[in-house]
Amino acid sequence: MGGFSKSLTGRVILRVDEVEKGLLVSLADQVCEFVTPEPRENADPLAAIVGIDMDAEFPDDPAMARLFPDAYPDDPEAALDFRRFTQRSLQETKLAHARTVLQSLSKSGEKITLGSGDIPSWLGFLNDARLAIGTRIEITEDNHEELADLPEDDPRHGMFHVYDWLTYLQESLVQLLLP
């Protein structure tokens, strides 16, 4: 299980086995489903064209709230206004990142080669998947070791290890980008 690396020609590659690739495909599919904006019936056509979501509201789902936090936590009215103007665009960006990852995975075998334009999407996807999983398992700096030592029969056990692997992948990709 290796992270991202550079080939001799300087291309960014990720080598994965069949299980790891399947997991990445599943996670990307889930992110797509999770962040896809809901269609709005009777939406103002002009607002839809420019990406304004007049029905936007703070998400009830903690993972969705983590992916789309309030811009103004101390001012609910300003936060809602900001959300109306940005949330749909943010959702579409996250969706595009996950779709780019799916496209990379579908045209590759065990060696995934990223084009320079794919790297921001992979970073965005890895971050989104980590945030959603981390929120679901309620990971914090204070309980990281506790979660790492969970017994195998704890439902969070597997998700923690997926979270940890995604963290490793993200870190290995970021390290390649550093001078």
Rounded Rg: 18 Å
- Tell me the domain tally: 1
Largest sheet: 3 strands, antiparallel
Could you tell me the mean pLDDT? 91
Strand content: 5-15%
How widely separated are the two ends?
Answer: 24 Å
Which blocks of ≥5 consecutive residues have pLDDT under 50? none
Number of strands: 3
Q: Could you spell the SSE succession in H and E letters?
A: EEHHHHEHHH
State the secondary-structure class: mainly alpha
Overall, the morphology is: globular
Total helical elements: 7
Read across the widest sheet, the strand sequence of neighbours is 1-2-3
Helical content band? 55-70%
Architecture overview:
The chain has helices at residues 18-35, 45-50, 62-67, 76-106, 119-136, 144-148, 155-177; strands at 4-6, 12-15, 111-114. It contains seven helices and three strands; from the N terminus they run ββααααβααα. It has one domain. It has a three-stranded antiparallel sheet. The chain is mostly helical. Helix 1 (18-35) packs antiparallel against helix 4 (76-106), helix 4 (76-106) crosses helix 5 and helix 5 runs antiparallel to helix 7. The mean pLDDT is 91.
Provide a quick synopsis of the model:
By secondary structure, the protein is mainly α. The chain has helices at 18-35, 45-50, 62-67, 76-106, 119-136, 144-148, 155-177, and strands at 4-6, 12-15, 111-114.
SSE layout:
Elements lengths: L3 E3 L5 E4 L2 H18 L9 H6 L11 H6 L8 H31 L4 E4 L4 H18 L7 H5 L6 H23 L2
Helix pairs in contact: 1-4, 4-5, 5-7
